[in-house]
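Our preliminary data section would be incomplete without showing what the modeling component actually yields. Below, a chain of 68 amino acids is followed by its predicted structure, encoded as tokens that our downstream tools consume directly.
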Amino acid sequence: MNTISIKTEYIKLDQFLKWADLVPTGTEAKILINNGLVKVNGITETRRGKKLKKEDTIEVDGNIFIIK
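Predicted structure:
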């Protein structure tokens, strides 16, 4: 499990994917999310503006991240 630290109250899902170096652009983040390939707290998430907060877990392609 990988840990990603944020200094703000939340980060949007598409921004998180770029911050964690999972995608190089927002367009690629949008495609990944729209194709149902991202899970937040175990549930497939299709909203790229989903607000992620500390302790949320994100799963992409078998990789799991937790926000601290």
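Residues 26-34 form the longest helix (9 residues). Residues 22 and 66 are 14 Å apart (CA to CA). Preliminary results of this kind motivate Aim 1 of the renewal.
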